[in-house]
User: Fold this.
Amino acid sequence: MKKINGKGRIIGLLIIAFITTNAFLIFLDEEERVDRKSYIDEWSKSITYDLFEKMETKAVFTSKEKEAVYFDENTGSFNEFLVKEGDTVSEGDELYTYNVLNYYQEEARLQSEIDRLEEEMEAISSFINEIESYRVPDPPETEDNSGLFNNDTSSNEETPPSYVETEYLKEEKIAEQEAELAKQEAMLEMVENQLDQLQNDGDQITVTSAFSGTVTNISESLEAPLLTLESPNLVLEGAIHEQDRSQVKEEMTVEIYVPELDYETTGTLSSVDQFPQETDVNRLSRYPFTVTLDQPSEDLLPGYHAELKVITEEALGVVTALDTALETDENLYAWVMDEEGMLERRAIETGLEDKGLVEIVSGLEDGEWLAVKPKDEFRNGAVFFTPLHTEDLQVQEVFNIERRSMLSYGLLGLLSR
Assistant:
């Protein structure tokens, strides 16, 4: 018994010495002459995706247009209001009346106002014609490999962004001036109507509206403005903090959520002020902004609050990877399975980050596999193995095959040998 126990101890010591020696040799193997394998427990795959960088802020719905209606006490004495707060009025609807003090003076004032409006309308019409006649320069022609200009419209060359932007600005300016012209036409019709009343009646004038909207305020004390009208079209107004002002600019896309209605939509940052609401050495400045909605809901009301996400940067259709699959010492890199099924330490360059996904500028292609963990098992050029997921094996289906089919498959297997 003593000899057996002594022999067992010797074998055990030899096994321990063998394991220790190999571990020591591997530890000292700086040139990696010993072929080692890596155990990879988790992988991720690079995919093509759209990434966005967003800035969160808040805003409130308000009327897109406000029109103040005034009454000059030098022209006459106020008579009565013909509307009340909350009323909806259209162009040409009656607002209030007043009695004229001096017929000839008021006639001259109204005629002068008509002349001024007609001159402004003529200037606006000329400006619209000038913009419409402006021809945006065609995009530069591209040369093919033979050195000749290629005028084929089916070419894959895209229209330069500057050309598209100029065309857009042209159409936008035309629409803006046409809206202003329509406003002036409504004002002219209102003033001409007042002049007709004066010349027919001689003493009383009924002022009509040149604006369609809702009466939101009436000054019973006759302080200016006498009435305030607001259009039913809504926009969002808010203010951006000083530290975020440099990130935003006009025409950026905005994601909008209205908690009151559980309603989501999108819009455009139509204006961002260059000057803050107020300046104070002890407080951060805030810069007003306006957002127009792409598809406003009829359920929205002025005063409703909204949560906004301004898309300040985007990377569309780019190769992305999980940030957990990327590592950095001095430079960023990832452990990638190469074409031969080996681990490869590969340097990469990244860009935008969004919710755990990172844009890969260079170093990876779509569909490549990246090792995630355990990180201490990653070795360059190493063969790897992964755990067997028995839950993916459909063993039970083997036994669910009909006896006759199982016998046929078995005989076919024997005959094939």
About this structure: The two ends are 53 Å apart (CA to CA). The first strand starts at residue 37 and ends at 39. The helical segments are 2-28, 103-133, 161-201, 395-399, 403-416. The chain is about 30% helix and 35% strand.
